[in-house]
Amino acid sequence: xxxxxxxxxxxxxxxxxxxxxxxxxxxxxxxxxxxxxxxxxxxxxxxxxxxxxxxxxxxxxxxxxxxxxxxxxxxxxxxxxxxxxxxxxxxxxxxxxxxxxxxxxxxxxxxxxxxxxxxxxx
Length: 122
Hints:
This protein has two helices and four strands, in the order E-H-E-E-H-E. By secondary structure, it is α+β, with helices and mostly antiparallel strands. It has a four-stranded antiparallel β-sheet, covered by helices on one side. Helix 1 (30-47) packs antiparallel against helix 2 (85-98).
């Protein structure tokens, strides 16, 4: 039996999954990580609130993995509700603008809550 689907509605806010991968991080010293990179990363992530973004949840794969991300292409995922497309672009750009893209790759995937488990706010 087929389920009939209308054209998916783009939710407000947008549901955004950011895939986060460590790249140049592995070529840095412990000192550089502790004194420069991690404080800057913490500041950028905390600053995402200025775009109206609300964190829904995160997942870090480090329980059973170590080193390069491998075929998955990410080390952690950050799930946010974000009010606008411009805010998603600003959040992604924050890595580029601060030079964090030298150490990490960030990619945004935009979708919506899964209709069988959550209702999208519209």
